Amino acid sequence: MLALPAATALASSAASPPPLAVPGLAESHLSPRFWLESLAHPDRVVLDRAAIEAQNARMVGEDPSIHDLAALPDRIGGTQVREWIEGLSTLPTVTMYDEDGQAIDPGVLATIGANTNLDRVPADQPARYGMVLRRADLRAFPTALRVFRSADNSDIDRFQESALFPGDPVVVLHESADGDWLFVLSQRYAAWIPKEHVAEGDRAQVLGWGGDQPYLVVTGATARTVHTPEAPGVSDVQLEMGVRVPRLVDWPADRPVNGQVPAAGYVVELPVRGEDGRLAFAPALLPRSADVSDDYLPLTEANLVRQSFKFLGERYGWGHSYNARDCSGFVSEVYRSFGVLIPRNTSAQSVSPALNRLELGPDMDHEARVQALREARPGDLVYIPGHVMMVLGHVDGDPVAIHDTSGMSWLPDGASELQRLHLNGVVVTPILPMMAGRDTPTVDRITAIQRIRP
Questions:
Q1: Domain named NlpC/P60: which ranges (predicted)?
Q2: Helix-helix angle 327-336:301-309, to 10 degrees
Q3: CA distance 197 to 76
C-alpha cells in the first residue's frame, strides 16, 4: 500500500471549499512526480513481453468482445452480418434532439434507418479486408447527424460509438444505401465508418502490414506527421497513444521525404489510397520531437502513472468524440502503449475473463469494498456500471484515481444535498468521497476491479 505524507491527507470542509473544487485534491496531486515518489518499486516490471503476449492471446481466445480477424472464414454469411448490424443499429423509440435542441422528425430517423440497406445484405459474401487511413468515428448508423436524448445535452451523441485509427485493419461487411458508409468489423468493434477513411486491400496486405520490420509506438497522447503539401494522404495524420507504425530505417539520409530531408524526423510508413483506389503505403515523416518509442513501453507502475497523466485535462469525449476519448477509451489507450489489449467498452472490460478480476458482488459490505480499494495498486481498473477509473495510489491509505469523466457528486460536511461537479475531462479524484446518490457512496456501486498483473 502506498503511504504518503499526512500533510496531503484527504479532507474537506463545507466552510472552506476544497482546493481545485474536488474534495481532497491538492495541487501536488496533479503532478506524476507526487505519485512516483510514493512507489516502493516504481520500475519493477509488472508483466514482461512474454506475459503480455500470453494475456493478449487469452483475450483473443476467451473474450467474446474481441474479434480475431485473421481467423474469419473466406466467406461470411449474411445472417451473421445482419445480426451485427441489427445489434447496433436500432432506431430510438423516444424523441431525440439535434445539436440545436430541436426534436428530430421521426421521418428523418426512418430515412437514417433505411440507409442501413439491410435488405441488400447478401446471403453469403467473400471477406473483404481494408485499413483505416485516418482517425475516423465509428457510428451506430450510417450518418454524421449528432443525436441526443434531451434538448439541453449536446455532449453525449447517442449515435457515436468509438473511433478507429490509422493502420487499424477491418473487414468490410456492408455498404450503406447512399454509398458513403461501410459497416466494418474491427478487432474490438463492429460499426459504421465513413467510406472515405478506408482503403480495401488483400487479406495478406492488410493483416501483414509492418510484419517483422522495425516500428515506432506512439507514447504521447498523440503524435502528428509533418505537414506536406506534396503528399496530402500522409500530411498532418494524427496518431493516438499506442498506435504502432513501421519505420523505414533504410531510407537514405539525403533522400527527401515529400520535399523534406529526414534529418530531424523519423521516416515511417502509413496507409493511403492508391491511384487505383486500393490500399497502398507511402512514406511519411514524424518529427523527432514526437513522443514515440522504438518498442512498447515496459509495463511498470511508474510508466502507468506517467502515461495516464499525458491525458490530464483532455476534454471528455463520449465514444471518442471531440477528437478525444471517454473513460474506457482512456484506460485502453494507456494500456495499449504497453502492448496490452483490453476490450473497448466498460461493459466488456469489467467482466473480461482474460484479466485478473476481483468481483465486488452486491452482498459485499462497505468496509470490505473500502479495504479492496486500499489494497489496489497503481494501474488497477475500478468499475461501476458505465464507468471505469484507474487507481493512481493512496493518500493516508485512501484510494485516488485518474479517470475520464463527465462529472462527480459529493456531499460536503454538514450539507443535506449533493454537490455536482461538471468535470468533463481527464481528472484526478479521491474515490471515497464520490457519491452515486444522497445515501449511496460510489464505492458501494463498484462491480469489479480488473488487475492487469499476476
A1: 298-430
A2: 130
A3: 23
Residue 384: φ, ψ to 5°: -120, 165
What is the rounded CA–CA span in Å between residue 125 and residue 133?
A: 24
Q: Which of 21-25, 126-130, 427-431 has the lowest mean pLDDT?
A: 21-25
Q: Which CATH architecture has domain 6-43+298-451?
A: Alpha-Beta Complex (3.90)
* CATH code assigned to 66-207: 2.30.30.40
Whether residue 316 contacts residue 33, with contact meaning beta carbons closer than 8 Å, is answered with no
CATH of domain 215-293: 2.30.30
Determine what percent of the chain is predicted with pLDDT higher than 90. 93
- 132 within 8 A of 161, measured Cβ to Cβ: no
Phi first, then psi: what are they for 80, rounded to 5°? -65, -40
Has residue 12 got a pLDDT over 80?
no
Residue pLDDT, tens place only, 72-114: 999 999 999 999 999 999 999 999 999 999 999 999 999 999 9
Dihedral (Cα; 427, 26, 433, 157), 10-degree rounding: -20
- Inter-residue contact 82 to 202 (CB < 8 Å): no
d(CA 401, CA 388): 10
Residue ranges per structural domain of the chain: 6-43+298-451, 66-207, 215-293
pLDDT of residue 415: 86
Dmax over CA atoms of the chain, in Å, equals 70
Rounded Cα gap, residues 40 and 270, in angstroms: 41
Is 215-293 the same fold as 66-207?
yes
Q: What is the pLDDT of residue 19?
A: 59
